């Protein structure tokens, strides 16, 4: 198996435009979860449990994206 060269849009830290798209989609998903939390009466805790791992992943992606975009 041969190694593929990085795509043209790859940033030095390995983050690409796909990382930025992932952050945006996760924020959209968190907005939908926030709406579900706001509209829910008895199941608010389930919305919180669903949101926690998505928040962690979104923060990790955003941190990775910011580090790869900053000049070193």
Characterise the protein shown here.
- With 72 residues, the protein is mainly α.
- The chain has helices at residues 17-39, 44-69.
- The chain is elongated, with a radius of gyration of 16 Å.
- It starts with 16 loop residues before the first helix and ends with a helix.
> What percent strand?
under 5%
Number of strands: 0
Return Rg in Å.
16 Å
Percentage of residues in helical conformation:
55-70%
Write a short abstract of this structure:
The protein has 72 residues and is mainly α. The protein is 68% helix and 0% strand. The protein is built from two helices and no strands.
Label this structure with key terms.
single chain; 72 residues; mainly alpha
Secondary structure blueprint with pairings:
Blueprint: H1 17-39, H2 44-69
Helix pairs in contact: 1-2
